[in-house]
Every structure is written in C-alpha cells, then in structure tokens.
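Changelog-linked ticket: FE2/S2 (inorganic) cluster example.
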Amino acid sequence: KVSNEAILYVNGVRRLLSDGLAHFTLLEYLRDIGLTGTKLGCGEGGCGACTVMVSQYDRILKKCSHYAINACLAPLYSVEGMHVITVEGLGSCKRGLHPVQESLARAHGSQCGFCTPGFVMSMYALLRSSQTPPSEEQIEECLAGNLCRCTGYRPIFDAFRVFAKTSNDLYTGVSSLSLEEGKSVCPSTGKPCSCNLSNTNDKCVGGDNGYEPTSYNEIDGTKYTERELIFPPELLLR
Ligand code: FES
Ligand code: FES
C-alpha cells in the first residue's frame, strides 16, 4: 500500500516529515537531525560544502537517477519521496572509509576538511550516475561547484583521477586505488606512481614494484559492495 505521508529517506533510514518543517532547507534539516558532516559554507550555492546526493526513481525511464545538489538551496519538501545520501552514509573511520574518501585521504586532498564532504559527495554522485568510468574532464567538471581554500585543488584531482581509469572495482578498497597495472597513489606525492613507499615521510623515488597500501577498509573486513546503500524499495511505489 502506498503511503500518503510526507517522507524521505536519509542514508537508508525512513523519515517522516512532520508539520512545521516547510520553511526548512534540506541542509537545515540534515544538521538538525544530527548529520553535521554536511557543512554550511556560503549558504547561497557558491561553495559546494553542503553537497549531498539525492536519488529518485524515474517511472518513465524505469531507473534511478542520482544527482549531487546543494542542500543549502534545496527546500526540504523539494526532496520529499527521494533518498538523500550524505557523507555519513558513505563511510567513517570507525566503519571503514568509502574508496572515494580513502583515496582523498591518501592523496592529502583534505587539510582543514571543511570542503571535504562536499567534494566526496560530488565525486560519489558522479560515480553512481555513470554507466562507464568517467573521464578526467568529467571529474573536473563535476567538481566545478566545490571550492577549497586550502589544498590548491591538485591533490583532490589527483585523488579522484584514479576513478577515471578503473571500471569494475570501484567499491573494493585497495583495488580501486590501482591505476594502470602496478600503479597506485604514491603516499609521498599523492600522485599515480609505481614506487613502493609505505612511509609518507620518505621521498618518492619511483620504482617498478606496485605499492600495496594497507586499506582503511580492512577495519572490519567487509567490502563496500556488501554495504552500499540501496534505493529504498518503498520509494519505487510512489
Ligand atoms: Fe555553499 Fe551550500 S553552503 S553551496
Ligand atoms: Fe580546507 Fe578544502 S581542505 S577548504
């Protein structure tokens, strides 16, 4: 039976929208329910710190579409009946990082960290909505709405560029960090490399052996394919 209630799903959890929330933006709502990983930067769509992914079922195309949106601009009720995924829905140090988060951390793409959830969600939405691996140009384009005042962007692009080259194994941690055969993100430079450094304080000298990083995702041994958030079945009926 299809419910007439005003609902949305946030990170796989059903949420009933009670009366009196019509003036809330999605960002205010998310932070109000304790999901403070989504940041308030400019509050006017200019910085991308509030980026989240929303998923919606398209009855005509019979498939789910995924979009990165600025939660500071979206009225709460504009996402009614949709699935919202925030950075908390991807991963954490306790549960293990999502490969997008892990790659960014390894490449030193996060300094103060305020912009990081937004970058992660923009990249994640691109991967979820791409049938084939995105090109480097598409990755740069998808990050065009995210600002960072610390890193100079290069480590962020380098971190995410690895996803342009791999296709089948985005959610398996270590293997998702592999570029061409034998290459991965160098822990020293944060760039694709075939050195085998394990200490970020050492200087990269290049090398022929593939670097085998210890994945944060080995924390509980499960792969992301086993815990990726699915589209809530209830929303297929609405
Ligand atoms: Fe800057 Fe939303 S807070 S775009
Ligand atoms: Fe500080 Fe990006 S890491 S704003």
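Closing comment: Example verified and attached. The beta strands are 7-10, 13-16, 51-58, 63-70, 83-85, 184-185, 192-193. The helical segments are 26-32, 99-106, 116-129, 136-142, 154-165.
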